[in-house]
Design brief:
Blueprint lengths: L22 E5 H18 L2 E2 L3 H4 L2 H9 L5 E3 L2 H9 L5 E3 L6 H13 L4 E4 L2 H14 L3 E7 L11 H13 L3 E8 L10 H24 L6 E4 L5 H5 L6 E2 L9 H4 L16 E9 L5 E4 L14 E4 L6 E4 L5 E4 L12 E5 L3 H5 L4 E6 L2 E7 L6
Helix pairs in contact: 4-5, 5-6, 7-8
Length: about 375
């Protein structure tokens, strides 16, 4: 593999200002504080954390979360799970159903070498296929029932349906019934705390109803997993979830920065730990400059990037094409010279991270590491 162009800057004082841009920059101190804050909150509420790797896609960050007490890691794709397990992360939960013979074979092969691997299901035929593959390989597999609770993507839609699936899993050789997953992504970014709580009321009722039914059927769920960064404070106080699948909190973005996470209308309890660094490449116009970070450098589903450093007060960032961005000044006298570096908060962290091969990990102004991102893995 070709060495990264910034490899030689690792450990060089002031190296952060010399990065090849666009660059995904991770402030390690801030990420460590975010991880510690969420871990402490979970401990105080007596719930576990199985953070979602779909946000950071980083084995290094997953290992940090594990060292802080996480039970394991949640993955959206099999490729993510393979990357996490390859780094020694245990307790991986695949939060999307795995179907098709190729993916099932890969997953069973992973289960043979990854401790406590689990996968969600919402379909009877999928259970049969998983059981047959697990038996053939001699690799027992933990299976979690995915509940539809408002997200409108996957999940069994009725209480009776969930009970039938639990019974089928328990009766299938090679499979172990592990519990329930319930994630309502539709309300995670609702700005108001009370409004978000109201939107989750039906979710909590559905989960409690299914859990109680399974207890009556002598199939009590070992885990009840779900929730996220937007709902974590509400989820932890319900006495319903045994573990929370928080993701974005570790780096944060513009979407969650606008959400009242704790219901106190105060500053976010989590720091912006990640930014995209862009370099000014042209200052030939009055009132604005052009940078090297455009549509290919940011996810575009969360609005324009927000400048957090490197530009005069009041300056705004907009896209000017695939490769270019624009910093527009608030005052006619403001200037930035070619070569100046501007840092922007990601509008939406998950898909922004997926655009990059590595994190530029910094402490202060020093680049301390380049961490690989497990992107493009399905």
């Amino acid at each position: 593999m070709t060495p990264h162009p910034d490899q030689g800057l690792i450990g060089v004082p002031g190296g952060r200002s010399r990065l090849s841009t666009p660059a995904l920059v991770l402030k390690l101190d801030a990420a460590e504080r975010n991880i510690a804050a969420m871990a402490d909150l979970a401990r105080r509420h007596g719930v576990g954390l199985r953070p979602h790797a779909k946000t950071h896609k980083s084995p290094d960050l997953a290992c940090m979360q594990a060292r802080a007490g996480a039970l394991g890691i949640t993955c959206a794709t099999l490729g993510e799970a393979e990357a996490m397990a390859g780094a020694g992360v245990t307790g991986v939960l695949l939060s999307s159903p795995m179907t098709g013979s190729s993916k099932i074979a890969r997953m069973i092969a992973l289960a043979a070498r990854a401790r406590d691997l689990m996968v969600v299901v919402d379909d009877e035929a999928n259970i049969e296929a998983l059981g047959a593959a697990a038996r053939a390989a001699g690799a027992p597999l933990g299976v979690v029932i995915d509940l539809e609770v408002g997200c409108g993507r996957t999940g069994v839609t009725t209480v009776d349906g969930a009970a039938r699936l639990a019974s089928s899993i328990a009766a299938t050789e090679g499979l172990r019934f592990a519990g329930l997953q319930a994630y309502n992504g539709a309300v995670q970014a609702t700005p108001g705390f009370a409004e978000r709580g109201a939107g989750l009321a039906a979710t909590y009722e559905r989960v409690a109803t299914v859990r109680d039914r399974l207890v009556r059927d002598s199939l009590p769920p070992t885990i009840v997993s779900g929730g996220g960064t937007g709902s974590h404070a509400l989820d932890m106080g319900r006495g319903l979830f045994t573990e929370i699948q928080v993701g974005s909190y570790v780096v944060m973005d513009s979407i969650y920065r606008s959400v009242d996470l704790w219901g106190v209308e105060a500053a976010s309890p989590f720091e912006i730990a990640m930014s995209v660094a862009a370099t000014v490449i042209s200052a030939s116009h009055e009132g604005f400059v052009t940078t090297d970070a455009g549509l290919k450098a940011f996810a575009t589903d969360g609005g324009d990037p927000v400048i957090v450093a490197g530009a005069p007060p009041g300056a705004t960032y907009t896209f000017m094409g695939d490769e270019h961005g624009r910093v527009t000044f608030a005052r006619a006298t403001d200037r930035l010279a070619p070569g100046a570096v501007v840092s922007c908060m990601a509008p939406h962290c998950d898909p922004t991270i997926n655009l990059y091969d590595v994190y530029h990990v910094v402490r202060g102004d020093t680049l301390v590491a380049l961490w690989p991102i497990a992107r493009g893995r399905w």
